[in-house]
Amino acid sequence: MRINGSAYVVDISRSQAVRPEKTENTQVQQARGPAQVRTLDRVEISPKARELERLKKEMNQYPEVRLDQVALAKQNLQYGSYRVDATVLAQKIMDTYGKG
């Protein structure tokens, strides 16, 4: 994400930058010094950030729990056909929590 612009306060309800109001007293203006030009801030979202946002929205459409896998596991447990390979389980534990 890139943010360009200045730190000036901008009224977002207007389409232009906030400009200092004109005063009738020119001595006050001269005492303040030269007028400063204020620019609008601009935010540009990178294509990669846009893609990530799109993927987040797409992922939120899916349930967090895969009900088909839960049903299959329950069925295998009920019929006694669920088998755990101890070697594979041990390897996954070591990969997850480290070897030390």
TrEMBL record:
Task: Show the InterPro entries listed in the entry.
Answer: Anti-sigma-28_factor_FlgM_sf, FlgM, FlgM_C
Domain of life, source organism: Bacteria
Residue limits of the Anti-sigma-28 factor FlgM C-terminal domain? 41-95
Show the segment(s) annotated as Disordered. 18-37
One BP term from GO: bacterial-type flagellum organization
Q: Does the keyword Transcription regulation apply?
A: yes
The alphabetized UniProt keywords are: Bacterial flagellum biogenesis, Repressor, Transcription, Transcription regulation
Q: Known NCBIfam families for this protein?
A: FlgM_jcvi
What the record says about family reads: Belongs to the FlgM family.
- What role is this protein assigned? Responsible for the coupling of flagellin expression to flagellar assembly by preventing expression of the flagellin genes when a component of the middle class of proteins is defective. It negatively regulates flagellar genes by inhibiting the activity of FliA by directly binding to FliA.
Full protein name: Negative regulator of flagellin synthesis
Natural source organism? Geomonas limicola
